[in-house]
Amino acid sequence: MSPLPGTKADRLDELHDPSISYTRFVVLFAKVMGKKWTNKNLAGALHFLTTNCLNRVNVFRNEAYCRLFFQAVKELKEAAAFKLIAYVLMPDHCHLVVNPRDGHITELTGAIKGLSARYVIDAAAPGEFLLQMPAADGITHQLWQESFKDLALWSNWMIWQKINYIHNNPVKAGLVKSAADYKWSSFRALYWQSGEPLEVDRDWWWPDDVRKLQAAMKELEEGERRG
User: Does position 97 have pLDDT exceeding 80, yes or no?
Assistant: First the structure.
């Protein structure tokens, strides 16, 4: 691949070239966009998602709760159009790499957190997830923190860096000696095709992802002109 153009204007011009390869498009797109789309709904990209349990409590040391989390993800995957590339459920947080077809990562994250919380809280003892005071919206029990962190992924290097990070998480935390030994990650599903605890998608991209990325680029340009 030839060197990246030196100016932003050059990069913008090349992004509109209909003969541009997909690999070069995502590299240039990342250069232009930087961190502008962190925690943004963005179609055409993979998303590295992180969400933590409230107060970082070790909720998922309970295997029954782990199974309920994956039941929720499986049901949502059957009902909504998103690709599941990699995952790990740690005792107090989780990481996912996903590709929602519509790019609505905020809504997908909310659905995953909401359904999994409902299943876990319903199965728990009455006071286990009870808040000291009801929230402003009347919620009395809570499993997840309100916030989440999402990073859009553009290149194969970025994607594999996050997949490897996900699978190494339990090893780094001292929970297991080998990534293959951890029960609640996608390592075995990805490399051994075991389908456990939840099957992953082999094809990461939707057919129209390039077009959606180009549309996002146009939206970014228009926003910068207005700003």
Answer: yes
Question: Of 72, 63, 8, 99, which Cα lies nearest the Cα of 182?
Answer: 63
Rounded Cα distance between 224 and 29, Å, is 15
How far, in Å, CA of 37 to CA of 227, rounded?
Answer: 16
Per-residue pLDDT at 93: 98
Per-residue confidence (pLDDT) for residue 29, from 0 to 100: 54
pTM value surpassing 0.85 = no
Q: Would you kindly state where each structural domain of the chain is located, as residue ranges?
A: 35-220
Q: Are 86 and 97 in contact (CB under 8 A)?
A: yes
**Using one digit for the tens of pLDDT, what is the confidence trace for 10-22?**
554 555 555 656 5
Of 3.30.420.40, 3.30.70.1290, 3.40.640.10, 1.25.10.10, the CATH number of 35-220 is 3.30.70.1290
| CA–CA distance, 183 with 207 (Å, rounded to integer) | 32
Element containing residue 100 per DSSP (H, E): strand 93-100
